[in-house]
Amino acid sequence: MKAKWISGILSMMLLLGIAAPASADETRQIEDESIYDVLVDRYFNKQLANDFEVNATDPSAFNGGDFAGLSSEILHINDMGFTVLSIGSVFASATYDGKEVIDYSQFERHFGTEEDFVDLLETVHENEMKLMIDIPTQQLSSQHFWLKDNPEWFIENEDGTYALDTANPDVQDALIEVVSGFIQQYEIDGLRLQETEKLDTGFINRFSEEIKSVRDIYLIGDAEMEPVEGLDAVVLPGVEETLRNSYKNFDQDTSGLPELMENAEGKLIQADSLRGSRITSDIVEAQGFPPTRMRLLFTQLLTMPGIPVVQYGSEIAMNGKSLPESHQLLNMAVEKELIDHIKNLNSLRNSSEALRTGELEVIHEEDGWLIYKRSNDEETWIIAINNSSSTRNFTISADEIGSDKQLQGLFENDIVRQEENGDYKITLDREIAETFHVIDERGFNKAYIAALIVLYVVFMIFLWVVWKKGRQRRADEAAKTANEKQGEN
Question: Is residue 468 a part of any domain in this protein?
Fold first, then answer.
């Protein structure tokens, strides 16, 4: 019911010109995107033909997910409103997560054929999304075919895998050649360098220049680090720890959130990553209730500055303390409430430039009671998150949002109107988040009333036409009856 109501609100906003969604033909920038992060092997098994020694009961083995499975269930991702699908590494690998690459020139056979990959790419584009893949370089297989001919390119890791020395010019040449050939052949939209913090910065810069000279695609990192020349975005330092500690239970210390948000513009923001544990494990350890915790977390993640990255399974509060436990098969038969909440938030974000790239102002933060504003010249939003164990309220002055306004709540169906003293008082129950759209009260009412008047006039005209036709029909029937009687006489 709430999902339909939110959709109705969005439709009305668009009708009145309050929010303008980005056109499907409009070129999006990285700041406009929201990324859904999956592992091909753990999403959905569609084809049995590529199930080579698959064991779905062993978390460390290939479980059977494939390109065809992603294609067949793409609507799940699209319906949630994500604009970029990141599918990890697709190259021939010794491991299900694609990190232990054997051959960059071959697709992993468990994932499917080249034709299956092309079909997935086309399906993603048909659904007006972008496709991103990972480039692993630091945990390659001991069977990697470069190792035999060029052992000096590699550094052996303690676990028996091998890392490419990305400071080596020959390694740079080889990687640039193979990846350039890949993006020339397949119209993918982005690359993510794995374990970016271990890579030579000179390599990153050169790699970026060479790749983007082939085609201007996204190039991002997967590590929390300071911005690096050549990368379009990196993960905001401290973002996972701050968000996890703030939302693992109620009455947490949220004092780190304002600074986090103020530094998030243009950065990747996430509470999980496919490199380690899930936030659900933190919530369970803190004896929190995952559905409520995740609802509050997603409200912040999808309305604060930054580029949200959401890992597969977060929409069902997937658990896992460490790898491979945190890489479970996605259960598609789940309760949809949290999924609908993500869908609604992404719908707002996709429709509102202010929520994607607008200015941020933290209005209030104290003891889990957080209020902030996102705005640009066209629109203003107030996001209120009560992550405490009691009902909270806060008064916003007219100087903050203007006079003769109203705050239209989109999730709890609240409307906050200006009080006699000119202030606006927001009240939220415990563990509740609300997204308020600041609108002109009189302007909105006039439009609403005008619509009602038009509807009323049309309805009255309809009734008059029906009445007139009915009257004419009765007159015609009476005349016909009279004529028939006259003929009988």
Answer: no
